[in-house]
Specification:
By secondary structure, the protein is mainly beta. Helix content is 0%, strand content 54%. It is flat. Pathway: Protein biosynthesis; polypeptide chain elongation.
């Protein structure tokens, strides 16, 4: 058993008969009344996100997890196949356990958290950003550049991303996996 002082991003806990991963937290110490911790929890079984407030000193049930590096192999319907980088053992995970499945390119390394009690995968941590090639981009119309004009572009994984007007087909762009937004153009 741990307490609210042990809460951190990425911690997996048992809560309301389900397993949740802490996405965000904030320790709040108001001038009047007891301290508390506001958290944003993501269910690792259904993918739903909920807000919860724990009072200071509240006991939480932490789940022991191991983190292993897995390489993404290929998608097959709603199943995504991964290979352990050390043991070469293959696993398949459902699409809803992934945060940004449309940004996964074959060969990408991800971190998979595995429950040590049941040996079942709990969550997949994507890299902070990925570099993908633009396969289709609408032509940028000259004169539309009053303020930060963007257009729609499709990358090699099939995901749609809003990019600045100067991005063309064949360009490689860096995409933030947390928000799915354009970061910068990559020169090679």
């Amino acid at each position: 058993m741990a307490s609210t002082s042990d809460i951190r991003n990425g911690l997996c806990i048992k809560f309301n008969h389900d397993i949740y991963k802490i996405i965000e937290f904030l320790h709040v110490k108001p001038g009047k009344g007891p301290a508390f911790v506001r958290t944003k929890l993501k269910s690792l079984t259904s993918g739903k996100v909920l807000d919860n407030t724990f009072s200071a000193g509240h006991k939480i049930d932490v789940i022991r997890v191991e983190t292993h590096t897995f390489q993404f192999l290929y998608p097959e319907g709603d199943e995504f196949h991964f290979m352990n980088a050390e043991t070469f053992e293959q696993i398949s995970l459902n699409k809803n356990i992934l945060d940004a499945p449309d940004l996964l390119k074959e060969g990408t390394n991800v971190m998979v958290q595995i429950n040590t009690e049941t040996d079942l995968p709990l969550s997949v941590d994507m890299p902070a950003s990925v570099v993908l090639e633009v396969t289709y981009a609408e032509p940028g119309v000259k004169g539309n550049t009053a303020t930060n004009a963007t257009k729609n572009a499709t990358v090699e994984t099939g995901a749609s991303v809003n990019v600045p007007l100067f991005i063309n087909e064949g360009d490689k762009i860096k995409i933030d996996t947390a928000s799915g937004s354009y970061m910068e153009r990559v020169k090679e």
